Amino acid sequence: MGADAELLRRMGPELELLLPELDERARRLVLGAVARAAGDGGTGAVARLAGASWQTVANGAAELASGQVTPEGRVRRAGAGRRPLAEADPGLVPALLALVADSSRGDPESPLLWTTKSAKNLAGELAARGHGCSPQTAWRLLRGQGFSTQANAKTAEGRRHPDRDPQFRYIAGQAREHLAAGQPVISVDAKKKEQVGEFAQAGREWRPAGDPVRVRDHCFADRDGGHAIPYGIYDVGGNTGFVNVGTDGNTAALAVESVRRWWQLIGKDAYPDAARLLVTCDAGGSNGWRNRAWKAGLAELAQETGLEITVCHFPPGTQCRCLTTELSRDGA
């Protein structure tokens, strides 16, 4: 005796309207109920009628027959569904950890690690080793093992000179003495240069939708154009900044001229009784300790302004912000 053809004929249009409105649990149970009502062969007939999996219809009918219907609030009974990939393939996680072992960074004692390999590349290498895995699964497994994606942190220092700390303390002492006497203290440094013209720049800005700033599609050097070279002056006592922008090169002339313009535009008014000026800077570049043009230019500036100018260079590999750190450390 075959399935009830009349019942299936009448239920076809109804199922077509009803099934799209149901979740997985309700859909399975409805198909199972119709299959039971259709009699022998009903499972296959309902599966063909609804375009569903034979197993889905059979599972629904079995749940109704056993009386152990999935509880309200659950789509599947406990233990149903596909096993997690890490359980189905016990070698997956060890293989993943082996792949990232040579590229992982971080303290081995820390619960937080990070890796330099992308999830896509890891998934490809796992597949090549017989462990089928999507990039999303690789990412999820790494997160579960305590990994995260992070940028590099500049924390490793070079060889420390025994006079490094005394040098910082000397500079901090000079700065405290100048500030206590009401004399200006500035830190100077050149910043990253940028091409002047229609070139792509990092970052984003608010603009009307669909109206980005048009720039060149290739940022080759423009021989006819120039570069914007910001040279910064930080007034330690006033906690203010000043930037002078050059368009030629990061030279000693730009460094001296930046100090000169700071004094003419801001410094002489902020410190009307100043007789001395302390300049702190890093050890290289346009204001380096070996740069004679920098020294000669400051000597000329001292004659122009009548200021006694003292320059303190920080040790190699350090920057001007170390002054603020050292002052804070000493309680100034």
Label this structure with key terms.
12 helices; disordered C terminus; 3-stranded mixed beta sheet; 6-stranded mixed beta sheet
Structure notes:
It contains 12 helices and 9 strands. The chain has 332 residues and is α/β, with parallel strands linked by helices. The protein folds into 3 domains: 5-66; 85-148, no CATH class; 164-198 and 225-329, Nucleotidyltransferase, domain 5 (2-Layer Sandwich), CATH 3.30.420. Strand 8 (276-281), helix 11 and strand 9 (308-313) form a beta-alpha-beta unit. The chain is elongated, with a radius of gyration of 37 Å.
Per-chain topology:
Elements: H1 5-18, H2 24-38, H3 42-50, H4 54-66, H5 85-88, H6 92-101, E1 104-105, E2 113-115, H7 119-128, H8 135-144, E3 147-148, H9 164-180, E4 185-190, E5 194-195, E6 227-235, E7 240-246, H10 252-270, E8 276-281, H11 292-305, E9 308-313, H12 322-329
Structure at a glance:
The protein has helices at residues 5-18, 24-38, 42-50, 54-66, 85-88, 92-101, 119-128, 135-144, 164-180, 252-270, 292-305, 322-329, and strands at residues 104-105, 113-115, 147-148, 185-190, 194-195, 227-235, 240-246, 276-281, 308-313.
**Cα distance spanning the termini:** 98 Å
| Unreliable parts | 320-332
Query: Could you say how many structural domains there are in total?
Result: 3
Structural class: alpha/beta
Summarize the main sheet. Answer: 6 strands, mixed
The second-level CATH architecture of the largest domain is 2-Layer Sandwich
Q: Give the C-level CATH assignment of the largest domain.
A: Alpha Beta
- Overall outline: elongated
Mean pLDDT comes to 79
What is the helix fraction of residues, given as a range?
A: 40-55%
**Helix and strand succession?**
HHHHHHEEHHEHEEEEHEHEH
